[in-house]
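Hi there,

I know you've been waiting on this one. I reran it after we fixed the sequence typo, so this is the corrected version. Both the input and the resulting structure follow.
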Amino acid sequence: MKTQAWGWLVAGVLAAGLNASYHDGGLQWAHEIVNNVEHRSAAVLALAGGNAEQFFTETQLVSARNEAPSCPLSSVVTRVQNRLARTQAKVAVFDRMTARQDAQMARWEANRDRMEARIEAQTARLRIRTVAMNTVMVRTPQVTVCPRIRLNVPRVPMVRIPAPVIDVESGSGPI
């Protein structure tokens, strides 16, 4: 049992160290794997969802990563183009979402306008009779102030009574 516990402890420390190294920017190969998986899965989801623009953008990103740049300037340009393509894809998704939300808001406003028109038509048909009201006078009694009364209550001294002793006799003697 102790050996298994030590094994788990070593595995936990190793995992924490790898995690810290990954998040500090080390393990570049792991970052590349994660980025490739991210773009490929995004491409598959875009294809499944019918988003041709996003699919095209993601496939360009994956193919651009596979090409080896000839100079550092071209790699920087490629990175900038990739970021620009990703941003354009996100903007396209956002535009589609806002267009969908705008259409839904227009449907809600049209429904609200129809409901308001229906309520106005129903209230126009209502006839409320006019009724003459007579004024009512109510007299309120005047309240007088109650006088104060002062009482002196004497303190009663505390009386201590000793507890009684009870002897009960049984056949075998007192208890």
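Quick highlight: The CA atoms of residues 60 and 82 lie 8 Å apart.

Best,
R. S.
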